[in-house]
Design a protein that fits this description.
The chain has 319 residues and is an alpha/beta fold. It is built from ten helices and ten strands.
């Protein structure tokens, strides 16, 4: 699989990144550790060498599972994790990083990110300068190689950039969720900040596997995703119907089409989750897809029919 440079660093990442929120189990249903471990190893064998997790995914369970699954190939992969919004004071960042290092069975985290801006989800407001001082110190100590942020607006990204070199932004981004295009994405391209798109298949909606009114298992947070709600269902299903012929013409799945569109955007990689080896192998094949300009333009038009009526709230869920 091809490699791309992370920001201005010498770190090389794959355009398809394996996301491991599901591996933490919390807020998901019917997740099996054995299946997850097999999926992680299958991802590596398929050429995906970049893996994204977070301390808050199952209170470290995702990190631990990832660290164990990749222990034998640690020097051949890029590991990215995140510090929670409620641990952004200087000492908390340091402590959280050390826990993540232990969980991941590594001496260095390749990309360390702030999961949500200070104050999110009723967390305490901490000056960004204090948090970034901790990040800078961790980098100087060799505990982390690069600094990133997640769910930051352009204004928040610019402010953080006054205190440290930010190499990546991780926003929700897909054909059906595009607020970042009008906010932070132009700034990222100007400053060589890599966009790591999460939910690039709109949490599975862009695979076409969910019919209107689908009932998720107990504990699955996707029932709160705004794109799955009745007021958006009609537009979503009409868009999927129009996207299917494009995928069929290319001999690929709807999910692969959605991933290929995301990684075709300048400076953008896609973080794709998977429950099992079959799903991760399907995701990996999207890296081989090259969509011609007319297809990209057509998809852009179709996607906007879903996104244009949405408000500018970048948070996907109504918790």
């Amino acid at each position: 699989m091809e490699k791309r440079r992370l920001g201005t660093t010498d770190i090389e990442i794959t355009p398809i990144i394996m996301g491991t929120w599901q591996a933490g189990k919390h807020m998901w249903a019917n997740i099996d550790d054995k299946d997850t471990t097999q999926a992680i190893r299958a991802a590596y064998e398929a050429g995906i060498t970049t893996f994204d997790t977070a301390a808050s995914y199952g209170k470290g369970h995702s990190e631990r599972l990832l660290g164990e699954a990749l222990a034998q190939v640690r020097d051949k992969v890029v590991l990215a994790t995140k510090v929670p919004a409620h641990e952004l004071k200087y000492d908390q960042v340091i402590e959280s990083c050390h826990r993540s290092l232990e969980n991941l069975r590594t001496g260095t985290i390749d990309l360390y990110q702030i999961h949500w801006p200070s104050g999110s989800w009723k967390s305490e407001v901490v000056p960004i300068g204090e948090t970034m001082q901790a990040m800078n110190d961790l980098k100087e100590q060799g505990k982390i190689r690069a600094i990133g942020v997640s769910n930051f607006s352009r204004a928040q990204l610019e402010e953080a950039g006054k205190h440290a070199r930010i190499e990546s932004l991780q926003p929700p981004y897909s054909l059906f969720w595009r607020q970042v295009e009008e906010d932070a994405m132009p700034f990222c391209r100007e400053k060589d900040i890599t966009v790591l798109a999460y939910s690039p298949m709109a949490q599975g909606l862009l695979t076409g596997r969910f019919s209107p009114g689908h009932r998720f298992g107990k504990g699955d947070h996707r029932k709160k995703n705004r794109l799955f709600m009745p007021e958006n269902a009609g537009r979503v299903q009409r868009a999927l119907k129009e996207l299917r012929p494009i995928a069929e013409e290319r001999g690929i799945t709807l999910g692969q089409l959605a991933l290929a569109w995301v990684i075709a955007q300048p400076g953008t990689c896609a973080i794709a989750g998977a429950r099992n080896a079959e799903q991760v192998l399907e995701n990996a094949k999207a890296a081989e897809v090259r969509l011609p300009a007319p297809d990209l333009a057509r998809m852009d038009e179709i996607g906007r029919r879903v996104t244009d009526p949405l408000d500018d709230n970048p948070v996907q869920w109504k918790f």
